[in-house]
Design brief:
There is one protein chain. The protein is α/β, with parallel strands linked by helices. It folds into 2 domains: about 5-95 and about 205-255, Rossmann fold; about 100-205, Rossmann fold. About 50% of the residues lie in helices and about 15% in strands. The chain has helices at about 15-25, 45-65, 75-85, 100-105, 115-120, 125-130, 145-150, 160-175, 190-195, 205-220, 240-255, and strands at about 5-10, 30-35, 70, 90-95, 110-115, 135-140, 180, 200-205, 230-235. Strands 4-3-1-2-9 form a 5-stranded parallel sheet, sandwiched between helices. Helix 2 (about 45-65) crosses helix 3 (about 75-85) and helix 8 crosses helix 9. The mean pLDDT is about 95. The structure holds D-glutamic acid (DGL). D-glutamic acid binds near residues 75 and 116.
Length: about 260
């Protein structure tokens, strides 16, 4: 039992899609959320640049007493989580694109994965596909520009729709009936993506599964809180007012 907070990090607001699942499952915990707004997006950065950013954020979260850190960003997890686990004494829980459940659910044998370029290029991602694909064809689609649209709070405008159409078209044409949302920003676009791809296509993200994993780790390490309030301390590397404004827009749109 502890009163220390859970640290949650992302390149921007995407990790809030995971934070919401954490708050739902663990209402007695407190959280510190760090948005690396000034360095967003991570998707076009080198592995080393992403590792360096996650190290800086980890130091900040640990200085504020975080007992566990959720790397609520697929790109950062793929690039850096092993390094972080080897370097710091607290548990880290990372994101894992939903390849395994997608393979279990596809009927056409074709799964599409929407994610950032850096995530799709990562060794950890390739290992995940090699482990779970079996006979299923996994088609990957990098989505430059989508994270920026979410960061602008533009979840269904014409520009965002055009990008979603552009990125899902090849997957639909190939016969994908399951699409993995392999970036924590994309759950905010789920209503739009669902509208574009139609009701026959299943959209999968892993926010809820990651929250359950956090609960298991807290239990295992005897770190569960009993008297937190689900409060969040918001930190960011960019302009805090801008960050607050985007949060408000996301809440308004997808509460
Ligand atoms: N939310 C991050 C992810 O899950 C976005 C990465 C980026 O900043 O490009 O991959």
């Amino acid at each position: 039992m502890t009163v220390a907070p859970i640290g949650v990090m992302d390149s921007g607001v995407g990790g809030i899609s995971v934070l919401r699942e954490l708050q739902r499952l663990l209402p007695n915990e407190d959280f510190i959320y760090y948005a690396d707004h000034a360095h967003c997006p991570y998707g076009g950065k080198s592995r080393q640049a992403i590792v360096d950013r996650t190290v800086a954020i980890t130091e900040e979260l640990l200085a504020r007493g975080a007992k566990l850190i959720v790397v609520a960003c697929n790109t950062a997890t793929i690039a850096a989580v092993e390094y972080l686990r080897a370097s710091y004494p607290v548990p880290f829980v990372g994101m894992e694109p939903a390849i395994k459940p997608a393979v279990a659910q596809t009927r056409t044998g074709i799964v599409g994965v929407l994610a950032t370029g850096a995530a799709l290029a990562g060794e950890k991602f390739h290992a995940l596909v090699a482990q779970h694909a079996g006979g299923v064809r996994i088609i990957t689609q990098p989505c430059p520009g989508l994270v920026e649209q979410v960061e602008r709070g533009d979840l269904n405008g014409p520009q965002t729709r055009a990008l979603v159409e552009q990125y899902t078209r090849p997957l639909l044409a190939a016969g994908a009936d399951v699409m993995v949302l392999g970036c924590t920003h994309y759950p905010f676009l789920k209503p739009l993506i669902a509208e574009v791809v139609g009701p026959e296509v299943v959209l999968l993200d892993t926010g809820a599964a990651v929250a359950r994993q956090v609960e298991r780790v807290l239990q295992r390490e005897s770190l569960l809180a009993v008297d937190g309030r689900g409060g969040v301390e918001w930190l960011c590397s960019g302009d805090p007012q801008e960050f607050a404004a985007i949060r408000a827009r996301l809440t308004e749109f997808s509460a």
